[in-house]
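User: I'm curious whether this sequence folds into something compact or stays loose and floppy. Could you predict its structure so I can see for myself?
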Amino acid sequence: DRVYAYAVDSAKGEITRGPTPYAMTAIGSGPRRLQIAADGKFLYVNGQNDSKVTVFAVDGTNLKAIQTIS
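Assistant: Here's the prediction. I'll summarize afterward.
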């Protein structure tokens, strides 16, 4: 029930975890599918087990849950 965030440096070919390695979804939700908004400001995460979508505000590698849609 975690969504991990990574920084990608394509020039160096490196992937690193952010300072906060993950954001939580509801316990038992089973996050499976992700969609980032075209502007990169929001991440939409579908819960396989609860059929809800959690919306995260994206700031670099920091994710903050701001809404859950059922």
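Summary: The mean pLDDT is 95. The chain has no helices and six strands.
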